[in-house]
Every structure is written in C-alpha cells, then in structure tokens.
Amino acid sequence: MTKATIGLTVTHRRYIPYSHAHYAGNLVDGAYVLGLFGDVATEVCIQADGDEGLFASYSDVQFLQPLRAGDVVEVKATISRVGNRSREIEFAATVVCRGRPDKSGSAAEVLAEPLQITRATGTVVIPAP
Predict the structure, then answer these.
(1) What is the value of pTM for the model shown?
(2) DSSP structure class, residue 11
(3) Which one, 12, 53, 82, 129, has least CB within 10 Å?
(4) Residue 8 in contact with residue 47, Cβ under 8 Å?
C-alpha cells in the first residue's frame, strides 16, 4: 500500500570535503549535486512506497550558484505529483555553511541566508510488484 502523497519531503545534509574539488577555486562539479538528488530521491521512494524506485528522468535542472569544497549542502526532495507508478519530485540544493580558506585552513561559517545553488524536477518510477 502506497503512502505516496504530494508534499512528502525528505532532507539530507552533507559536508563537501576538499578532496571532491575538481576545478580552480575549490569548485565541485554539478554532477555531484545530481548524485545527491538521486540519494534523496531514493529515500523519498522508500518512505512513500517501501521500494528504492528507479530514477527515470530530469525534466529540468538549473545550476544557480557554485558548490565549493568546504560547504555544507542541504538537499531536499518533495513529491509534487503522484501517478499510478510514477512520482514527480521537486529538488533543491542549498548551501547552509561555507568554508573560509581565506581566513585559515579550517575556518568556516554558517551562512546568514542559505544560498540556493541548484534546483531540478525529476520523475521516479516504482516497479510493478
């Protein structure tokens, strides 16, 4: 029996280690955030349907700001549409803490206003029993 309901939200937070930086300025590639969206979508499917589900597609992805090593990023997935076996999910990635290597090697700060870095819409499918 499904518990999939519009508005069901799952949130994950993750520290981004400096070993994940791929570009100058300690930038982390956008694919890293999409991987986090996949992780949070899996939990949405488990919470809603008791199954890990299968990610079918993204209909929209917007990279708004960079993700940097030393950030703490929060990713949210919210069910926005429920079909027979499909679920449309709205994703958001927000930086809540940021490393400050300009101050010292381990300096960081909590951002006064979280910084939305990525948003997306995707569809997951729950396999037929």
Answers:
(1) 0.92
(2) E
(3) 129
(4) yes
Segments of the chain with pLDDT less than 50: none
pLDDT of residue 112: 97
User: What is the pLDDT at residue 4?
Assistant: 80
Residues whose CB is less than 8 angstroms from the CB of residue 81 and which lie 6 or more positions away in sequence, other chains included = 6, 87, 88
Sequence letter at residue 97: C
Strand order across the beta sheet in which 9-15 lies: 9-15, 72-82, 86-99, 108-125, 54-63
pLDDT at res. 2: 65
User: In angstroms, rounded to a whole number, what is the distance separating the alpha carbons of residues 101 and 107?
Assistant: 6
Those residues whose C-beta lies under 8 Å from the C-beta of residue 41, and which sit 6 or more positions away, are 53, 55, 77, 89, 91, 122, 124
For the chain, how many residues are written?
A: 129
Q: Are 42 and 52 in contact (CB under 8 A)?
A: yes
